[in-house]
């Protein structure tokens, strides 16, 4: 199998599995119990919090464990809006993940005004429009992602955060795709809330974290217990949290060694160079210079991405497309649509997302297979 779908999820690191195992077996205590079995679980959870706080670059008391990125995004948005009933407007981008986009859509039905800042063809946020929108005194929150899950394009979060601070607008950053790939260091940036998810950096699924800066106006939305310092009720997912802690520690170590990023960049550039030089009418979606090094979104003109993925899967090569099959017709991804990528490219766009476990030999195989697949599809199933 050649796995190039790491933005969807990653393989769990063996050391993460090993760290979790005792908490699924003998160390099963409830961290709220005062006996040694419970306290052992609590200690492991607090050690994990320390590692996650290190990855985010914040204090341990600012980390709240959640069930993943979607819950962290929900908790950030709902928690700020509920605590600021005097403000009725949220600023966001036109390319957010559905965890943010759909949550804001629900709020828009409850009377909240949502201002979507557009992006250009390269996927970059219109900073002038953002600055104009900030002038409105009714803004409760800005929720803007760090790295795009489909194109890998990075928003200029330091500049966005500075703008928010100047206008006293709280900022939530969906950093689910950025964590473990770029340095977050929130203590050095005026970011108020930030979401991450363990399974995107070789941790387990179903566990994530929300960073809430001290003194941020925010209130819990999951009530019913004193866990997480009264900020998220419910018995904690101890094995998952321990796994997230180990994954965060490994991710930080990897991040601190530039050789990892260089290797990923080489692999991605090799994949793109081979595809662009051997397959006509192909396009890289998103600004090539300002992207995550592991992500390549490539549009193959006049073909359906689903057909490409199907044939790739027959060769045990796994990637994905932003296109979703809704009511029988394939809709291009909302992200590519927001970037104004023409339909004939967007329909045939495939996301390849790499990890350091990939090899040059795999990239060569993928490029060779793709060349055959694309010419077959263009001959047999052209889309006009
Ligand atoms: C940018 C972004 N935000 C949020 C999420 C949701 O995270 P989770 O799968 O942990 O709920 C994802 C997952 O793909 C993502 O890419």
Fold topology:
Layout: E1 2-3, H1 14-24, H2 36-56, E2 63-66, H3 69-83, E3 89-93, H4 98-109, E4 113-117, H5 127-134, E5 139-143, H6 157-166, E6 171-174, E7 193-197, E8 208-212, H7 227-230, H8 238-255, H9 258-278, E9 282-284, E10 295-300, H10 305-314, E11 317-318, E12 324-326, E13 329-331, H11 334-338, H12 343-346, E14 349-353, H13 360-380
Parallel strand pairs: 1-11, 3-4, 3-5, 5-6, 6-7
Antiparallel strand pairs: 2-8, 7-8, 9-10, 10-14, 12-13
Helix pairs in contact: 1-8, 2-8, 3-4, 9-13, 10-13
Bound molecules: pyridoxal-5'-phosphate (PLP).
Provide an overview of this structure:
By secondary structure, the chain is an alpha/beta fold. It has two domains: 242 residues, Type I PLP-dependent aspartate aminotransferase-like (Major domain) (Aspartate Aminotransferase, domain 2, 3-Layer(aba) Sandwich), CATH 3.40.640.10; 123 residues, Aspartate Aminotransferase, domain 1. Helix content is 42%, strand content 15%. The protein binds pyridoxal-5'-phosphate.
């Amino acid at each position: 199998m050649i796995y190039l779908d790491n933005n969807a999820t990653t393989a769990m690191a063996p050391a993460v599995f090993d760290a979790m195992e005792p908490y699924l077996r003998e160390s099963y205590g409830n961290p709220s119990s005062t006996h040694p079995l419970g306290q052992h679980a609590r200690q492991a959870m607090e050690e994990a919090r320390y590692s996650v706080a290190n990855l985010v670059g914040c204090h341990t008391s600012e980390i709240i464990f959640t069930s993943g990125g979607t819950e962290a995004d929900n908790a950030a948005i709902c928690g700020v809006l509920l605590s600021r009933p005097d403000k009725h407007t949220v600023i966001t981008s036109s390319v957010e993940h559905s965890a943010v986009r759909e949550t804001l859509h629900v709020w828009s039905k409850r009377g909240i005004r949502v201002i979507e800042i557009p992006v250009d063809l390269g996927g970059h946020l219109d900073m002038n429009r953002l600055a104009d929108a900030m002038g409105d005194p009714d803004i409760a929150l800005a929720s803007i992602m760090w790295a795009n899950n489909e194109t890998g394009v990075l928003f200029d979060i330091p500049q966005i955060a500075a703008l928010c601070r100047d206008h006293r607008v709280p900022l939530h950053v969906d950093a689910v795709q950025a964590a473990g790939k770029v340095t977050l260091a929130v203590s050095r940036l005026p970011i108020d809330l930030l979401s991450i998810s363990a399974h995107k950096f070789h941790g387990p699924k179903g566990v994530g974290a929300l960073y809430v800066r001290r003194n941020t106006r925010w209130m819990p939305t999951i009530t019913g217990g004193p866990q997480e310092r009264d900020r998220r009720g419910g018995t904690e997912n101890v094995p998952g949290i321990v796994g997230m802690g180990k994954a965060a520690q490994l991710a930080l170590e990897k991040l601190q060694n530039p050789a990892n990023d260089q290797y990923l960049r080489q692999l991605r550039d090799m994949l793109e160079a081979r595809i662009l030089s051997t397959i006509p009418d192909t396009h890289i979606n998103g600004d090539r210079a300002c992207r995550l090094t592991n992500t390549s979104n490539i549009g193959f003109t006049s073909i359906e991405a689903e057909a490409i993925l199907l044939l790739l899967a027959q060769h045990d090569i796994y990637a994905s497309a932003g296109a979703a099959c809704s009511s029988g017709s394939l809709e291009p991804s909302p992200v590519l649509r927001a970037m104004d990528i023409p339909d004939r490219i967007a329909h045939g766009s495939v996301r390849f997302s790499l990890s350091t476990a990939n090899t040059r030999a795999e990239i060569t195989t993928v490029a060779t297979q793709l060349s055959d697949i694309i010419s077959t599809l263009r001959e047999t199933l052209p889309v006009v």
